[in-house]
Amino acid sequence: MAARRAGAVLIVASLALMPAAGRAAEPPLEIGVVQPLSGAAAFVGSSGKQALELAEKLVNREGGVNGRPVHFTVLDDQTSPQVAVQLTSGLIAKGQKIVLGSSITAMCNAMAGLAQNGPVVYCYSPGIHPKPDSFVFSATVSSEGLVETLVRYFHRRGWNKIALIVTTDGSGQDGERAFNQTVAKPDLRDIEVVAREHFAPADATIGAVIENVHAARPEAVIAWTTGTTMGTVLKGLAQAGLEIPVGTTSGNISYSFVEQFASVLPRELYFATNSGTARGDGLVLDPRVVEAKRKYYQLFEQVGVRPDNGAEVVWDATLIAVDALRHAGADPSAEALRSHIAQLKGFAGISGIYDFPAEPQRGLKQDAALVARWNKQGSFFEAMTQPGGEPISR
Fold first, then answer.
1. What are 139-195's pLDDT values in tens digits?
2. Helix 334-343 with 309-327: angle, nearest 10 deg
3. How many CB atoms lie within 10 A of CB 216?
4. Bond before 102 cis per omega within 30 degrees
5. What is the DSSP annotation of 296-328?
6. Domain 144-273+370-383, what fold?
7. pLDDT, tens digit, for every residue of 230-285?
8. Burial (0-12, 13-18, 19+ Cβ within 10 Å), 174
9. Domain boundaries, the chain
10. pTM for the whole structure
């Protein structure tokens, strides 16, 4: 009888504890993310979505945010600035203190206009240029740093007659501004811009643009556009029989992109990029970055996915946002989150070692940028320079 009474007491005690445990369990902390899952930049957003799913698993495996699991709610901006604004407005209305994305400059610029006084908007594109101490942050090396690193590499190779092709949207305009700043530098004045062509993202063919470039007889082409619009450029160059080196934005470092346009890829296709996706013999990185990349690739290998730039630009920014949420208090304000990121230094990511006091709103300086090329034989994006642009001897 005594044993039965003791057992009953234990059962009652256990049942009494179960509702309390249920009450103590908190729902996941939702973090809103805006990504181009459809439209012209869908391949970038799809890669980023995969990275977010793995980042969520990693963060929760490491204790979430102060013991609370996180969930990244990914919303499709359809590669449209208007849709990006609508989605961001909805997240703000729900009380979000930090919003991640988008991955394309035009959408990021539109979203940034809603963050004058918060929430924090951490853009995954390098093509926006937030004001110091603002609530807007931008991922990876700036577009100016990327463009200059690419142009200097071409200059070292002796390709000094360059044709520039850009789209008329925000990304193209930003790339052209960066290009103009670069070629105006005193030590690069022997670069001759033999053609400067523009086309609208909606243009399916650009025959006149390609004819003008062909007539200018460039030694290399820089086409600053991403996704299907870059495919339009490559098709035009191939149809014209213009087989010369082509340089482009890191946004095109995508396995989906090179597979889709395999038939028109030039023999020499170069990308201005960061260290997260670039690989190959001779690439020397900070040991902390090497370790961050090892963990990153290991996670993707476990699910049979090859990460590319769409994943890279998402990765560090997302983990930095989580770091801010972990350190800014139980119910952080947008200002507390902004302040934490603005003071963060020594954060080891796959794209470099971040130092926000030294490089406000971005964390990475130009010396973290490098040039990679598509290695068709090995099917990977091969580093051609060290971070900072020094060519790798092979």
1. 999 999 999 999 999 999 999 999 999 999 888 999 999 999 999 999 999 999 999
2. 110
3. 17
4. yes
5. HHHHHHHTT----HHHHHHHHHHHHHHHHHHHS
6. Rossmann fold (3.40.50)
7. 999 999 999 999 999 999 999 999 999 999 999 999 999 999 999 999 999 999 99
8. buried
9. 29-141+287-363, 144-273+370-383
10. 0.89
